[in-house]
From TrEMBL:
GO terms for molecular function: oxidoreductase activity. Residues 15-439 form the FAD-dependent oxidoreductase 2 FAD-binding domain. Transmembrane segments: none annotated. Keywords: FAD, Flavoprotein, Oxidoreductase. The gene is tcuA. NCBIfam families: CobZ_N-term, PRK08274.1. This is FAD-dependent tricarballylate dehydrogenase TcuA. InterPro entries: CobZ, FAD-dep_OxRdtase_2_FAD-bd, FAD-oxidoreductase_2, FAD/NAD-bd_sf, Succ_DH/fumarate_Rdtase_cat_sf. Pfam families: FAD_binding_2. Its cofactor is FAD.
Length: 468
């Protein structure tokens, strides 16, 4: 197995054992090490694939009181919480959510102190210039900076270190066993190993055969093995197993690790139809950063879990393009044939939509007055007639980023046992506990907020517990 940084001698006991290798895990490891604890990080992937879903991220949503060099204006704690309430429909632990949002204000500085660099938002990135801070170089550069800092601090990192068992007695963590048979004891445990989105069999328990058509945007390593061990050994679960961060991504994307470049942000600029060429949801319901993550679940509910985003030449350059080019045709019937749809059915759907569009002033940065009338489902905003050729379409499937079933925690990121008692020495951060904050829905960048904030807290509290 390989180690990072100063490469200390492998040891079988440490103060803080961190399982996982992404944003949450590294924030926990660095935080614990800065508290003086000895820290070992176990990453199941090899060095190239390290970092889980963090590799594919671009930004983090943090509250802040004023504009900065990289943010165009203030984003108050209350506005952040109102946005969270809106996207979750109120399904959130308010105390934990407000605690996270309050702590997020310090993350912009803290993360930079760990070597991560920020940049202003790019054009076509969901209009996030005021609310979200973008990593210079993206998620992989952010990860590299965190790993470098962890190495300099003396954190030991082992790759291809798959944990197969956890010794837990009466809510007290004792040791982890690796596939190699090695047993590692630790004063405290921080679980930051992600959800179960790449475990298709587990997804099928809740989604049935439809899960076979899901594409996994991130790592194939998030099988939920650590989550399963924790729940089986008495940690209280939180979250709906059918809820997840699921977006519409290009149907031509690979099964795993397609990442950000396969996401499609063009829904608001056209219409979305299923395999029968029928619309099924309001494409203009709300500002895109607050609604883009509902589209994976919507497509998952359609026949064969496939849909098509249809738009015209006026919209082609209004969004960040996918890795794959759109399918193009000179007429709507020709576009339908290229997509394998019924040409007459798609022509009828587009004609009905065009007839329902009412005049307005188009502005995709606000809830504009371009809407349909007398159409079911409606398009509430950004409705423009699809009439300027050539015409384009993207085929889309559900792209699962991470699942919301997880471990319940308190404000100290300490896991709660099934009987309601806080664990003696087990903490969790990141996707494995995201269901505490995200009962449903998603707002752009909040997954990184959950990971960084609770990672920092978990590492700090784990170190203090271990040293005491």
């Amino acid at each position: 197995m390989r180690s990072e940084g100063s490469r200390p001698e492998p040891r079988s006991r440490v103060d803080v054992l961190v399982i996982g290798g992404g944003n949450a895990a590294l924030c926990a490891a660095i935080s614990a090490r800065r508290e003086g604890a000895s820290v070992l990080v176990l990453e199941s992937a090899d060095a190239f694939w390290r970092g889980g879903n963090t590799r594919h991220t671009r930004n983090m949503r943090c509250a802040h009181d004023s504009a900065t060099e990289i943010l165009t204006g203030p984003y108050t704690e209350e506005e952040f919480f109102e946005d969270l309430l809106r996207v979750t429909g109120g399904r959130t632990d308010e105390d934990l959510a407000r605690h996270m949002i309050r702590e997020s204000k310090a993350m912009l500085t803290w993360i930079a102190e760990q070597g991560v660099r920020w940049q202003p938002s790019l054009g076509g990135t969901l209009s996030l210039g005021r609310t979200n801070s973008f990593f210079l170089g993206g998620g992989r550069a952010m990860l590299n900076a965190l790993y470098a800092t962890a190495g300099r601090l003396g954190v030991e990192v082992r790759y291809e270190a798959e944990v197969t068992d956890l010794a837990i007695e009466d809510g007290h963590f004792l040791a982890a066993t690796l596939r190699s048979g090695e047993r590692i004891e630790a004063g405290t445990l921080v679980a930051a190993a992600g959800g179960f989105e790449s475990n298709i069999d587990w997804l099928k328990r809740y989604w049935g055969e439809a899960a076979d058509n899901f594409l996994i945007r991130g790592t194939r390593n998030n099988t939920g093995a650590i989550l399963r061990l924790l729940l089986d050994k008495g940690v209280q679960k939180v979250g709906d197993p059918t809820q997840c961060h699921a977006v519409a991504i290009d149907a031509r994307a690979p099964k795993y690790d397609g990442g950000i470049i396969t996401r499609l942000d063009c829904v608001v600029f056209g219409i979305v139809v299923n395999k029968h060429a029928e619309r099924f949801y309001d494409e203009g319901e709300d500002i895109w950063p607050k609604r883009y993550a509902i589209w994976g679940r919507l497509v998952a509910a359609q026949p064969d879990q496939i849909a098509y985003v249809v738009f015209d030449a006026r919209s082609l350059e209004l969004f960040m393009p996918s890795l794959y080019p759109p399918i193009r045709a000179e007429t709507i019937p020709a576009l339908a044939e290229a997509l394998g749809l019924d040409p007459e059915a798609l022509d009828r759907t587009v004609a009905a939509f065009n007839a329902a569009v009412r005049p307005g002033t188009f502005d995709d940065t606000i809830l504009d007055d371009c809407r349909t009338e007398g159409l079911t489902p409606p398009k509430s905003h950004w409705a423009r007639r699809i009439e300027t050729g050539p015409f384009y379409a993207y085929p889309v499937r559900p792209g699962i980023t991470f699942t919301y079933l997880g471990t319940r925690v308190n404000r100290d990121a300490r896991m709660i046992m099934a009987d309601g008692r806080p664990s003696a020495n087990m903490f969790a951060a990141g996707e494995i506990m995201a269901g505490n904050v995200l009962g449903q829905g998603y707002a752009a960048g909040i997954g990184m907020t959950i990971g960084a904030v609770f990672g920092r807290i978990a590492g700090r509290e784990a170190a203090r517990h271990a040293r005491n």
